[in-house]
Amino acid sequence: MNKRLINHICLTMMAALFMVSTYAQNIHTLTAEQAIELAKKNNISVKAAITNLAIQEQTNKEITALALPKVTGTAGTTDYFNIPVTLVPGEFFQQPPGTYLPVAFQQKYIASGGFNLTQTLFDGSVFVGLKARQSALDYYKKAIDLTVEDLSVQVYKTYYQLVVSNTQIQLEDSNIYRAAKLLHDTKVMNENGFVEKLDVDKADVQLTNFQIQKQNTATTIVNGFTLLKFLLGIPAADSIVLTSEFSEANLKGGVPMDIEYSYKNRFDYQSLEIQKQLNDFDIRRYQAAYYPTLKLNGAYQKNAAGNTYDLFTSAGTWFTTSYVGLSLDVPIFEGFAKNARLKKARLTSALTTDQIENLKLNIGQQVAVAKNNFVNSIQTMDAQKINMDRAESVYRQVKKKFESGLATNTDLSSSQSDLITAQSSYLNALYNAVLSKVDFLKAIGKI
Questions:
Q1: Overall CATH class of domain 25-68+123-291+334-443
Q2: Helices 337-403 and 409-443: crossing angle, nearest 10°?
Q3: For an engineered disulfide with 261, which of 133, 209, 323, 444 has Cβ 3.0 to 4.6 Å away?
């Protein structure tokens, strides 16, 4: 390659890097609460739940329209190529009895225009539907609350798992630092004839393992941020900075173990109660199908006819027709369809009642299990923290003995393995404590 080509390639790569850095959209600096608010705004599940509410609002307008008057305008004109005739008895025209004469009573051209009015005065089904409108809206509002609650649980868990990952990275950095120092010291001791080359290789392998472990952890964290971006509804190219701090004291605090819970604090329970109200409205609606319906009818029309098409000129003569009337429809028999619909609505309502009772039992079980898990996870976290500190103390003592020639490399490796095991157990306990607290808050309806 000549120098000009190399320079061209370098400039192209720099331009590409600049475009990539420019494409990286925004940096979001978020507390846990701000992350929740951003998810509420952007997440597609929440948007879908809000759209369903908007759809129900339009459905309610349709129901309202059933109780409002309906006015239609009509207009038309007709040109008879063959005028209809009516057979009239011949006696009317001094013809023999039994004969009929065709007589045309219709004009060749006809025009009409007017308005028709229909107003429902009584329809039980319509009136029940009007009363059910607010409950239907409440049901979809509660669906939004349920969606936001589930989303909040996912965001909290993902957010704080990433925050806790900082502790994991710190521990792994400490392990790498100790392993690097051990490798350095072992090399010095090997050069002075105190340890074998095998000990140097073991220390080198241990350092590499720690570095690979940190690399795997970093990949897991990157994937966690990718998941969080998806939950927040932001592009994968964006960056997120987590600002909420994590401490064991905060994890333990804020949730008294003797807290009283109420079924009504749970959105799923509230949703079922509203569903029961809608079931009861269905029963009333099908019962109202047995009642008569009463409607007001009215019309105002103009009609004109003639054998020449001058109806819309000054020569045309128009005649007015108007009326107001009542119509009463009394249901008598529909093949037992109404009865079947009514029974089905009652069975559906009974099923919802059973679901409510079952949910009460389930909530009680969830609260008890979540509380036990939370208490146990806190106790386990505390115990594992103490155990990790002890393992680290043991490792430091064995390392000093190893450096003094009073302990073997096997002893040092064993203490190091115990420390890693204790660290892993502590991190798992820390993760479990975060998750169990979120689960407990959700169980008591406080998320």
A1: mainly alpha
A2: 150
A3: 444
